[in-house]
Specification:
The chain has 441 residues and is an alpha/beta fold. The protein has helices at residues 2-7, 22-31, 43-50, 61-69, 105-115, 134-145, 192-203, 215-246, 250-257, 281-290, 297-322, 351-361, 391-396, 411-417, and strands at residues 13-16, 36-39, 73-76, 87-90, 123-126, 163-166, 185-189, 209-211, 332-336, 365-369, 375-377, 383-385, 399-402, 421-423, 438-440. The longest helix has 32 residues, at 215-246. It binds nicotinamide-adenine-dinucleotide.
């Protein structure tokens, strides 16, 4: 019955959590022909979505608005709609607590809402990034522990009466080459039947599926992918620090090494890692590893090195100013890019925040320009606004600090107008004139 409904796309699909992950997923489902309902606890987000306004750059208003107007997508803050849904994807945040342990509250809240309305033949898929064991040890007991008013949930058996799987989201915000439909999906169901139903579901809107033996395996796949990035970024940041001492150009070295057609994959140094994934997800793994008396040394070390990079950037700024016989104290710095990566507007965990904190500590003044981040609120409570990138703005800065290599900036023009530049991303690599003004990490 559920398989038939999925295959003929009459199944009612639902997505819980409409952020960077949930919103594109909801659009992919609706575009495949499913009548889809999105649920989010943020009423402001729901209000904007009802007006056809998206907060996620990968989902432009021109895409979401017609789907809302036609009724193909409905959005709400009311969880009662779960009663009518055949499939539910959970895409809620999985941050770290202050003590850097997993904060599972968002998953608990979503799972409890589902549990109260769980019904026969419903497919539940967790997509949030999390530690191995979450789906079976954490979500399943919540689903099993609740009673529905009309039918006791405990009489529903996973794999027979309802289906539960883990399938990590792999999309990369800002990547226009790979999106939901053409990024292969990993699926691990609690039972074989769960995997089968989840696979049938995803095949409706994703080209390639790889099933694995269990949810724990699928959870670990995602953590491997993100830990791989974190550790390699940590390694290349360390190599950058060594090259600096040896007066070698790390960028030239990486480009030359990347000519090797096998056994090498280029990673690039930068001001540190940011976003919801790389600085956070590996800690989910190291936390879980500790439960098995294993101390994940690579993970902790990479994180330590990556977190030190903002301090190194400030050293470079200080050096650039020193060459002009200036001090950080009282200098005017123009920060170019505060988003954590190129061509996105996401400032979560952005290394720019730490660089700014450190330069303010040294009594430097700063202004910023980011074409994707209109306002920037600091922990201190002060909010800054992105300044228009004019020649005047660039010329008046004692040093321009490129923290994000947004594609829309004309770097030759920037270098021509700047007094001095610290380039943490090699954004100025093609600039012909004015290289002597540039200090790279
Ligand atoms: N952003 C990425 O690039 C990316 C990529 C792959 C995986 N992930 C993972 O996907 C998950 C979601 O990340 P995101 O970037 O989309 O987060 P996000 O913060 O952009 O969106 C999460 C949304 O969930 C909503 N929400 C929170 N609790 C809720 C609840 N109980 N019920 C309903 N809605 C709720 C929030 O209001 C928010 O709109 C995380 O586990 C993340 O690690 C993120």
């Amino acid at each position: 019955m559920i398989l038939e409904k999925i295959e003929n796309r009459t199944a009612r699909a639902g997505v819980i959590g409409l952020g960077y992950v949930g919103l594109p997923l909801m659009v992919a489902l609706a575009s495949a022909g499913f009548r889809t309902i999105g649920i989010d606890i943020c009423w402001k987000k729901i209000k904007r979505l009802k007006q056809g306004i998206s907060d996620v750059p990968d989902v432009p208003n021109t895409v979401i608005a017609p789907l809302i107007t036609s009724g193909q997508i409905q959005v709400t803050t009311a969880f009662d709609v779960l009663e009518d849904l055949d499939t539910v994807n959970i895409c809620v945040p999985t941050p770290l607590r202050e003590d850097r342990t997993p904060d599972m509250q968002y998953i608990v809240d979503a799972a409890e809402q589902i549990a109260q309305r769980l019904h026969a033949k419903q497919l539940i898929v967790l997509e949030s990034t999390t530690y191995p064991g979450t789906t079976e040890e954490f979500v399943l007991p919540i689903l099993n522990s609740h009673f529905n008013q009309s039918a006791p949930i405990q009489s529903l058996e996973v794999g027979r009466d309802f289906y539960l799987a883990y399938s990590p989201e792999r999309i990369e915000p800002g990547n226009s080459t790979y999106y939901v439909a053409n990024t292969p999906k990993i699926i691990g169901g609690v039972t074989r039947n769960c995997t089968k139903v989840a696979k049938t579901f995803y095949l409706q809107f994703i080209n390639k599926i790889r099933t694995v033996s269990s949810p724990r395996t699928a959870e670990m796949v995602k953590l491997l992918e993100n830990t791989f990035r974190s550790v390699n970024i940590g390694l290349i940041n360390e190599v950058a620090l060594i090259c600096d001492r040896m007066d070698l150009d790390v960028w030239e070295i990486i480009d030359a090494a990347a000519t090797k057609p096998f056994g090498f994959m280029p990673f690039y140094p930068g001001p540190g890692t940011g976003g919801h994934c790389i600085p956070i997800d590996p800690h989910y793994l190291s936390w879980k590893a500790q439960k098995y008396q294993y101390h994940a040394r690579f993970i902790e070390l990479a994180s330590e090195i990556n977190k030190e990079m903002p301090r190194y950037v400030v050293e470079k700024i200080s050096h650039a100013l020193n060459l002009q016989r200036k001090a950080l104290n009282g200098s005017k710095l123009l920060i170019l890019g505060v988003a954590y990566k190129k061509d996105v507007g996401d400032t979560r965990e952005s290394p720019a925040l730490e660089v700014i904190r450190l330069i303010l500590d040294k009594k430097a003044e700063f202004i910023y320009h980011d074409p994707y981040v209109e306002n920037l609120s600091l922990d201190s409570g002060t909010t800054y606004h992105s300044e228009p990138l004019t020649a005047n703005l660039v010329q008046n800065a004692d040093c321009v600090v490129i923290l994000t290599d947004h594609g829309v900036v004309d770097y030759s023009w920037l270098v021509k107008n700047a007094q001095s530049i610290v380039d943490t991303r090699n954004a100025t690599r093609s600039v012909q004139i004015g290289q002597e003004k540039i200090i790279k990490i």
